[in-house]
Give the backbone structure.
Amino acid sequence: MDAQSQHLFSLPIPPSTLAALTKAGYETLDDLPQSDSANQLIDVLNIPLGASQTLYSSSQRPNSGGPGNLPSTQTAASLIGSISKRKSRRFTTHCPPLDALLDGGLPEGGILELSGPPGSSKERILLNMVRSFVEAGRTVLLVDCQDMCEPCHLDELMTDNSSARRLVSYLKIGSLTELMMFINNLSSCNDSFDLLAISCISYPFQNARLTKSARNYILEKIKQALTKVNISQNVTIVVTSQLVTKLVNIDGTTGNFDSVGAKGVMVPALGHVYLPSAKAFRVLVALNGPTLDTGSFRLLAPLKPGL
Amino acid sequence: MLLKAFALLPDDLVTELASLGILTSTDLMFSSTPLEIYSRLSSKTISFPEFEACIKVILTKLATSGQEAVELDQPSQSCFKMETLTSLDNYLDGGLPCARVIEISGDNDSGKRILLLNCVLMSLLRNREIEGLWIDTTGDFVVERAVQILEYHQQSLDDMEILLQRLHISIATDMESVQQIIRALDFQLALVRTSSIQMKYIVIDSVTSLFGPYLSAVSSQGHAIMAAFMRYLRDFAKRYSVIILLINNATLMQPRSTARAQTTAEVTNPRSVFASTIRKPALGPSFTFMTDATLWVSLWPAQEEDEEKFTTHVVEVFRSKFSVSKYLVKW
């Protein structure tokens, strides 16, 4: 078997199509007729149009040229150039201490996670970011997982901006299943937006009974989808998350309620697995007391400055 | 391969065989003996010796060509090698050899990415006629790190820019995109090029996130995808004398389940020299056999007497086709 041609089982086609093609004897992309249009396979083998289009787009020969012409590829030098151009545009959170922590605001194409206890103003900061983007004339997709950011609140916040209604799209998510459907459809979404704001991404995970491996799998999927959309379409991502208690022993290892001397530490509910770790800013918003007047911000990541 | 793709077979024979359910060359060779297939043909348009001759032609076309042993004994000094760490290079007779697929695995934060980035950049620095491709699948690649490394080696801004023009960075978060990029590169390298700059490195960072979602306990399709792609990479490396480096993550060693097994006891990795290694490369037990070498990078625990802020890492050769295994280097 020729190692050079791509096998059909590695293509994203439905199992029924793969079975029909295998039964007809087609094993690799080279076996498919090249000069015919897609109609031949549809008529003879009853393959849906979408699958046959995938097959023919995969078998198309790419353009000639150096490695500079590869899909999704650029040289490191041009990547640095585009990053410095991107970083010059920063969006304010309308919260001066947080802006100072982020070195002037969130850069375009950056990722920010805000986690904190109930009552800390993370949702407020999220809406401030939405306002920043709307004031700059950019489009926003606001995903509400916990019913915290109703469209009427948004309207009140942006009464002076008439284009806000046109620029902001709102989506309500009720369960983990809906969240996963949204994540799966994210990269193939036709409408482009500049800011993806997800309110309380940890909430759908609260009541879902998941094994550890299933949870890790879902978090990896979220990371993949967010990375893809962040890099390919330069979408800025702002996410809020709740906190959970983690019990830590004196020596630093994970403990439980029975361990002697174990302390409870509040950490972001989903950990860092679901974010592209090198670029994401993770900020903990804490309150300084029961009066809710003062609070503090703590930058959890990235630990090395200048990134 | 489909029988109708063979121009040497007569069309009516192909149609007859198709009516018997024999569509591909695999069916023709392995479903039954030639005599039995011939007896099932309804109309005998060709004679049996002619039918056997057709089968022989197909066999000759599909079989791998032989190679004499004297041709295989190529002198290894003329081959391009990638220099890594001094002691590892001394052991490997110059460095990592070209036309190979090498896996670098280790835990999170063990230093695999920074090690590879250093080695690739140093190689690009020493040799101005080569270029490299870094495929980032997780979005964790920070290009400023490359700048920091070059600044440490006292490169001026202009030199840095020229060097960084030879390092290509791709972002591909799934299998499809990576396949597209590598096949596009394959097509471009296959055309005769007058350019003096040669592609010598491809780094895929990391393969765990690429293959991991496909591997499952209930279906072997994921494993087939992984095996087919690894075979394609091996072929690619051989054809263009490229070094392909794959970064793989680590998983915990599972204890063998017996009635008396203690589930809380940690299992050590028998491939490692150290008893403290309790993790193994991810992607299952067969992945290590799909590459030409497996290097394991781990973080050495910080000693109390270390006052300066540096970290110590250890590289072990778990398995290698071109050197002896179970060799370790500390840097």
In short: The longest strand of chain B covers residues 312-320.
